[in-house]
Amino acid sequence: MSEVCPKCGLPKDLCVCETIAKEEQKIEIKTVKRKFGKLSTVVSGITDKNINVKDLMKKLKSKLACGGTIKEGNIELQGNHAQRVKKILTEFGFQSNAIKVKG
Ligand SMILES: [Zn+2]
User: Fold this and answer.
1) Measured in angstroms, how far is the CA atom of residue 18 from the centroid of ligand 1?
2) How far, in Å, CA of 54 to CA of 63, rounded?
3) DSSP-H helix ranges across 1-103
4) Distance from the CA of 10 to the center of ligand 1, in angstroms?
5) Number of neighbouring beta carbons within 10 Å of residue 38
6) If you measure from the C-alpha of residue 12 to the centroid of ligand 1, how many angstroms do you get, rounded to a whole number?
7) How far is the CA of 9 from the centre of ligand 1 (A)?
8) pLDDT tens, 9-66?
9) Fewest CB atoms less than 10 Å from the CB: which of 20, 23, 28, 65?
10) Is 32:77 a contact under the CB 8 Å cutoff?
11) How many angstroms does the Cα of residue 22 sit away from the middle of ligand 1?
């Protein structure tokens, strides 16, 4: 017996909600200065409940080989990775033109 997604009515393994959610998210990536002048890359705007932010952060951390946390719903990665984060997010199915990179 397979579970059915309450939103799109498809079995969970065929569910398209996350894919659709990713295409609709407007994401902002910015680099901020933290304690001791260290730079962090903050990814904000991922608000859709269909997207697993924790899982996304894990994947970003392993791709970039850096540390990271979730702060107030935003993904915060250690170091300046803005351009690479954008590229990786597009590989994950987010729309390139919906991702803004701010200095
Ligand atoms: Zn679904």
Assistant:
1) 7
2) 14
3) 17-24, 53-64, 82-91
4) 6
5) 11
6) 7
7) 6
8) 999 999 999 999 999 999 999 999 988 999 999 999 999 989 999 999 999 999 999 9
9) 65
10) no
11) 13
